[in-house]
């Protein structure tokens, strides 16, 4: 077997049970605070992860069974480390399965043409939520604030808003049917909610709007929290 093939095998991860175990072993060793470890454990870590081991023995080292000493070392404080490892694996899988563009904030549309363009030309996998509002109409400002919050939690959804007058269809979107939420995907209208605040309580929040849209299955799965944020929560 060539040195190049051995190198590829050394870096392979997530391939079957052995690959998962080996990947977990590497992750555990890399995440441990080696500076504060006793000398005996440092020596064990050196033996387990020494970059100077013989090339012809690298495959055997990669696939060998975990020793009793390794098990005793790796099981210490496993709960916190296992959470981090699981989050990393979930994030990697999520990143691989996430398609389409991502967006920041709510997009303001200034004309009917811009409205049509965002519906017809957006990526086919992107959900587009359009809020048609009018300044001074009850519920419009509150819904705008809710969408600002949801846009940060659903970056793969394109949230937009447009003034009813600017849309060029003010006669269709009179004050009585505002605020209106329209939901599109691949150019198709999935949701048409006139006077949508009638489906919400008098005082509503972003979570209420989220629950309403989810009740129709219109929102994708929420983005996973950043690993750094969750690690800070674990420390707290």
Automatic annotation (TrEMBL):
Xref: SUPFAM superfamilies: Thioredoxin-like (SSF52833)
Residues in Phosducin domain copies: 7-228
A GO biological-process term: visual perception
InterPro entries reported in the protein's UniProt record: Phosducin, Phosducin-like_reg, Phosducin_N_dom_sf, Phosducin_thioredoxin-like_dom, Thioredoxin-like_sf
CDD domains according to UniProt: Phd_like_Phd
Superkingdom of this protein's organism: Eukaryota
Claim: Phosphoprotein is one of the keywords in the record: yes
Keyword entries, A-Z: Phosphoprotein, Sensory transduction, Vision
A Pfam short name: Phosducin
GO annotation, cellular component aspect: photoreceptor outer segment
Keyword Cytoplasm on entry: no
Family: Belongs to the phosducin family.
Protein name: Phosducin b
